[in-house]
Design goal:
single chain, alpha+beta, 2 helices, 4 strands, rod-shaped
């Protein structure tokens, strides 16, 4: 085996490994977005169920303690979600559909409010 063949082989291995690494990173980001969308849909359904049980209430008047009782599973609070930048996101549950916030900005890096990634996908 010549040095040229060895160099070409190593170059191809590096190229393929970088493609796999970039694909894995994209899949991890997609998974974060899907989990966020699923959790927001759970909050949205909890809002709808709460308002069905309390028809005289407004969404803006729902407290976190009241809403948690309508979330699936034995939860003690609202879901905790993380942005792509590893920052904690806040769920605004007093609007329908619920929104994710990073600081004072609505967080939805997908750019679409109806794709189900980073949103409840119901607008």
């Amino acid at each position: 085996m010549t040095i040229l063949e060895l160099t070409l082989t190593l170059g191809l291995l590096l190229l393929f490994s970088s493609v796999v690494f970039l694909s894995a990173n994209g899949i991890a980001n997609w998974k974060l977005a899907r989990v966020a969308g699923e959790e927001l849909r759970a909050v949205y359904l909890a809002q709808k169920n709460y308002l069905a049980d309390h028809p005289m209430s407004e969404a803006s008047a729902i407290s976190e303690e009241e809403l948690v009782l309508y979330l699936p599973g034995n939860r003690t609070g609202l879901p905790v979600l993380e942005s792509l930048e590893k920052e904690d996101l806040t769920i605004e549950f007093n609007v329908i559909p619920p929104l994710l916030y990073s600081g004072a900005q609505v967080y939805d890096p997908s750019g679409s409010a109806t794709d189900g990634l980073w949103d409840a996908g119901v607008r």
